[in-house]
Amino acid sequence: MVRAVVPAPPPPPRVYVQPAPPPPAPAAYVAPAVDVDVTANEAPPPLPDYEQPPCPEDGYMWTPGYWGWGGGGYYWVPGTWVQPPRVGVLWTPGYWGFAGGVYAFHVGYWGPHIGYYGGVNYGFGYVGVGFAGGRWVGNSFAYNRTVMNVNVTNVHNTYNETVINNVSVTKVSYHGGPGGTATVPTAQERAAAAEQHIPPTTAQHAHVQEAARNPALSARANGGHPAIAATPRPGAFNAPGVVGAHGANMSPSAAQHAGQAGQFGQNGAQHTPGQPGRRAQANNLAHPPGQPNGAARTQGQPGGAKPAKPSKPQHPKPEEKKGEHEK
């Protein structure tokens, strides 16, 4: 008996299933174009090193300096103390961001919370993320004396709180692109971006326009070291208390008003002229020996010129004596 051999059925055809593509790499943060004020084809210079003038009075809030663009070049907009438009708002600084082959400036704004400002470390509480220079307590603003230069004689709402800086301290003044910061907004900063904002005040706009008209603030003229790096109030470019950047070539008028005692550096450390181990004042003027405050010597002070001998007293005439007795 012959048995037939039945061949086994062929295996089912293999079906190739293409694997899922890998997740895309996180893209660099690109801010909305709606808040772009101006664009430039070159990166802004590094932030200058300067001191913070004292807060003029209660209620003023610090707005850090930055590089503006106009007339085919960068110019410095000095940091200054300003009055907020209303109670309860905080200032989010503007910043330069690189995207699409250009550097775009994103305008700062007032709002209930601090938003994203490119991870730029402006100093004085603006360390790249958030703000550690003060907070609202009811209807009054309280200043953190650890990083803010306040005179307790004029400003009474203060506290001391150590600032832990988790951001590398650099002078980079822009986000993205070659050499820029590489941060992305936090969840809190994204939420702050969606809140209602108040644009810069009229005084802030006038401050920027004044800076744009000042040829000495051009980066080409000052080499990145402006003689007017910070002012006590908006537009007060020639007032007492004006501060120049370290390394600035100061004009006599600017040098006369710069370098007030007790100014704060951008790292929050207080620089008092004449104290051992302290950094020199921003006006780069040598303090005359024997004068801890850098004031010019006057006659009769230690180390100064010898005082002139007093002249002999003039005796009154007899008629004058008589008149005195009659009185």
Structure write-up:
- This protein has 327 residues and is an alpha+beta fold.
- It has a domain at 33-254.
- Helix content is 12%, strand content 18%.
- It has five helices and 17 strands.
- The chain has helices at 187-193, 202-213, 219-222, 252-257, 318-326, and strands at residues 36-40, 51-52, 61-63, 66-70, 73-77, 79-82, 90-92, 95-99, 102-106, 109-111, 134-137, 140-144, 158-159, 174-175, 230-231, 263-265, 270-271.
- The strands form six sheets. Strands 1-9-8-14 form a four-stranded mixed beta sheet, with no helix packed on it. Strands 2-16-17 form a three-stranded antiparallel beta sheet, with no helix packed on it. The chain has a three-stranded mixed beta sheet with strand order 3-6-15, with no helix packed on it.
- Strand 11 and strand 12 (140-144) form a beta hairpin.
- The longest helix has 12 residues, at 202-213.
- The relative contact order is 0.16.
- The model is unreliable at 255-263 and 267-327 (pLDDT under 50).
